Amino acid sequence: MSASKRTMSSATTTGKLSTVSTSTFMASTVSGGSTDDGCVEDGHILESLNLRIFTFAELRVACKNFKPETVLGEGGFGKVYKGWIDVNPAKGSVAMAVAVKKLNPESVQEMEQWQVRVNFLGRISHPNLVKLLGYCMEDNELLLVYEFMAKGNLENHLFRRGAIYEPLPWSLRLKILIGAARGLAFLHSFERQIIYRDFKASNILLDSHFNPKLSDFGLVKHGPDDGECHVTTRVMGTYGYAAPEYVSTGHLYVKSDVYGFGVMLLEMLCGLRALDPSRPSEQLNLVNWAKPFLSDHRRLTQLMDGRLNGQYHARGAFRAAQLTLKCLAGEPKRRPSMKEVVEALEQIEAMKSKSKSRLMSFFNNNVFRKGTTLNHRRCRI
């Protein structure tokens, strides 16, 4: 795919992307009574785009001419660079770190996905959705500027080994799960629900205090309307996380997102990837192999991540396993809503955990350690 040639000359602090239809996510589509739900009370929608329009020259300077040492990661869209920008130069503000995603002209992803990201994140806000600060659309250059997420993506922390990636304690895993679930619940709270469609560990970014935010919204899609139970669309996403009904038929349900969440919940329990060719053939697909362990509290201990060293609430872990099974149900209608998932996880978090002291130690070593910098590869935003 070659990027469409478009030109936008001057930079402004607030602007509209005229080439993108903003009717996709109109404010009228959000449910009216969102303030009664803890999952969505902090979320809101703007009537129009409120983004800073950067020039390519500005971003080139901010990212040190896009040198290799500024690269945070790379995905199908292109490379992500760390940069520094002045939020309000006129008032002498201090430069802040940002993540700049630069479209690869040879990217297999479509221009439409870039437009969706701008239109969606430019008008929607929630504590558990990554914040888009602005964009650049100049000649063949397409770039997105996001808030910088200091701890990178969840996938690295969950599966990578090494001194800079200490095992996530049980309490911290629950915190991340609850935040990610709230982000999905917010998307599903719209009058015409929004399906995320690519929920996975690499799309969950963590700030300096390990607060999670969903990222990479290029595949978001409106849920069904007119009384329909699903929409039919081209199958996209990530194999291993995608719901079986979506893979086999192309029928996409709101609760297809719930299945993806169930896969990640399983990964958090056992510390194993959804798909891993290096494992024995019978264990290649984590969901198929692990399901029998989830329904038996005695066998569950064999499945739990050994790096937790048993420092988790056994009853809470079993309730999380039961929730995982519900999310992975074969029929979409048998899966819980994301609001119900949030409530279940909050109840599990409320249980007294054996890992409280370990969590404090983890934060002392990682969050409050002065001068600590991490280089997170494969960071997707």
Walk me through what this model shows.
Helices cover 31% and strands 15% of the residues. With 381 residues, it is an alpha+beta fold. It folds into two domains: 22-147, Phosphorylase Kinase, domain 1, CATH 3.30.200; 154-366, Transferase(Phosphotransferase) domain 1 (Transferase(Phosphotransferase), domain 1, Orthogonal Bundle), CATH 1.10.510.10. A six-stranded mixed beta sheet has the order 2-7-8-5-4-3, sandwiched between helices. A two-stranded antiparallel sheet has the order 1-6. The two termini are 20 Å apart.
Quick structural gist:
With 381 residues, this protein is α+β, with helices and mostly antiparallel strands. The chain is 31% helix and 15% strand. Strands 2-7-8-5-4-3 form a six-stranded mixed β-sheet, with helices on both faces. Strands 1-6 form a two-stranded antiparallel sheet.
The portion of residues assigned to helices is 25-40%
Hey, roughly how much beta strand do the residues contain?
Answer: 5-15%
Return Rg in Å. 21 Å
CATH superfamily of the largest domain: Transferase(Phosphotransferase) domain 1
Number of domain units: 2
Number of strands: 14
What is the ordering of alpha helices and beta strands? Answer: EEHEEEHEEEHHEEEEEHEHHHHHH
Average predicted confidence as pLDDT:
81
CATH architecture of the largest domain: Orthogonal Bundle
CATH topology-level fold name of the largest domain: Transferase(Phosphotransferase), domain 1
Class from helix and strand fractions: alpha+beta
Largest sheet: 6 strands, mixed
Number of helical elements = 11
- Across the major sheet, the strand order is 2-7-8-5-4-3
The span between the termini is 20 Å
Poorly predicted runs are 1-38, 370-381
Protein name: non-specific serine/threonine protein kinase
Enzyme class: transferase
Keywords: ATP-binding, Kinase, Nucleotide-binding, Serine/threonine-protein kinase, Transferase
InterPro entries: Kinase-like_dom_sf (IPR011009), Plant_Ser_Thr_Prot_Kinase (IPR050823), Prot_kinase_dom (IPR000719), Protein_kinase_ATP_BS (IPR017441), Ser-Thr/Tyr_kinase_cat_dom (IPR001245), Ser/Thr_kinase_AS (IPR008271)
